[in-house]
Design goal:
By secondary structure, the chain is α/β, with parallel strands linked by helices. It is built from 15 helices and 12 strands. Helix 11 crosses helix 12. It starts with 8 loop residues before the first strand and ends with a strand.
């Protein structure tokens, strides 16, 4: 059975946040890549075109950007500027990783095992926090669900960041070189060798993690249904978690996916959603991490119908939501000092204190 293993990422951001610079760097770094823009690309240019050979007068196939980037990366800038008819041409590529051709008597299927890195601007140019996600991201749900990660990069006014960015730009404009930094960047050749080494690994998901992954996915679907989530949590989300966990295991050059890889993959999914939904909650009091962790642990205890919960279950649930182990330990200690709950000496169970 053929299952897609490449990861597709969409960067949605305000103008001037260096999305195109990132795409051009990835294009130079990847051993096999293609760089194209939305307005300058057509559906035929991305997939394949049927042409007549000038010598033999026979019909021939000319591969497009996605075919030429097979087993590589295709960077698509200005993704939102593409025509709808041209954008639908990549739906098959993003899921089946093939391109089916039926033109001029030629019927075939071409491989397009490619990772797509797309950059787009929100509707009306900038992201408007007062509008819903649907109004800000005017892309079809069928296309958004094919992206494993969808990141929003906002250009928020901040004095320190603005000053640092302005100093960097003026230094580069004056001296035509990068300003001196406190670290030495990795060489491109070293990065290519490391990525090539990681690609030789093919980690497997052990059977012991099956129940944990399926339970985490069911919980994500439940939360999306209760919170009226608009970021399209679907079975493709489960496949995205498996792809991200496998990629994290590859980075460590191991042959087995571990529980920490799954937790980190789910944390990335949660953070990508928070980058979109977190902008809507600009009004009202901002909750501390300790208060949110307390609410999560309390809800877990209520769902079980008992007064206790396993310490490790509560910890893994909070880590999967994007919180760090230090934040979890701080929340547990803070509410234990308030006599809200007790933790046994072995730190295996959390027990809520009954109020008389």
């Amino acid at each position: 059975m053929k299952i897609r293993g490449n990861i597709n990422i969409c960067l949605m951001g305000d103008p001037g946040v260096a999305k195109s610079q990132l795409l051009s760097y990835i294009d130079r770094l990847a051993p096999r890549s293609q760089y194209t823009t939305g307005r300058g690309s057509s559906g035929v240019g991305l997939t394949a075109a049927v042409m007549k050979d000038p010598i033999t007068n026979e019909m021939i196939l000319e591969g497009g950007a996605l075919v030429l980037a097979d087993q590589g990366v295709c960077c698509i800038d200005e993704f939102d500027k593409m025509m709808d008819g041209d954008r639908t041409a990549i739906h098959e590529v993003m899921e089946q990783q093939t391109i089916s051709i039926a033109k001029a008597g030629i019927m075939t299927s071409l491989n397009a095992r490619v990772s797509i890195l797309a950059a787009a601007n929100p509707a009306y140019g900038r992201y408007n926090p007062k509008r819903s996600i649907e109004h800000n991201i005017q892309l079809p749900a069928a296309l958004l669900s094919r992206f494993d990660l969808l990141w929003l990069i906002q250009d928020k006014p901040d004095r320190e960041n603005d000053l640092r960015l302005a100093q960097h730009i003026t230094y580069v404009h004056q001296h035509s070189v990068q300003p001196p930094s406190q670290f030495k960047p990795l060489d491109m050749n070293l990065m290519r060798r490391y990525i090539a080494l990681c690609k030789t690994k093919c980690p497997l998901v052990p059977e012991t993690l099956t129940d944990y992954i399926t339970g985490a996915y069911v919980e994500m679907r439940k939360e999306a249904r209760n919170s009226k989530d608009t970021t399209f949590t679907s079975p493709r989300t489960l496949l995205a978690v498996l792809r991200l966990a496998t990629a994290l295991a590859r980075l460590r050059l191991v042959d087995m996916v571990e529980k920490e890889d799954v937790n980190e993959a789910m944390r990335l999914m949660e953070m990508s959603k928070d980058s979109l939904t977190g902008q809507q909650e600009t009004t009202g009091r901002v909750q501390r991490a300790e208060d949110v962790i307390f609410s999560m642990v309390r809800d877990m205890i209520k769902e079980k119908g008992t007064k206790t919960v396993r310490f490790e279950d509560a910890r893994q649930s909070c880590l999967a939501k994007g919180y760090t182990p230090d934040q979890f330990d701080l929340a547990i200690s803070a509410y234990e000092d308030l006599n809200v709950w007790h933790v046994n000496v072995a730190r295996t169970r959390i027990t809520l204190v009954e109020v008389a």
